[in-house]
Design goal:
The chain is built from two helices and no strands. By secondary structure, it is mainly α.
Length: 101
Amino acid sequence: MAEAFGFYADNLLTRDHFTEVLNARFSEQEARIDARFAEQDARMDARFAQQDVKLEQRFAAQDAKFEPRFTKLERRQGLQTWMLGLITAAVVLPQLQAWLA
């Protein structure tokens, strides 16, 4: 029997050998998974960068669209403030002169 099993004794799997093989395979699998995640992260980072560029362009377009309108409104508000001041002065000063006289 020893001769019959002697040929296969070298091919028998030991617990230590099995553990080493499993650990090596798990390490390979983890490396492949890590590589895939790194690849997906790179893709997502690139897509987010593209979206950031698009959003910045849209915000710049909106700023360019609204800036002239706000400038026009600010000028109009300044003019109205001066006109209100002149009207107030034209109404209040004669009334003060009448009261003080």
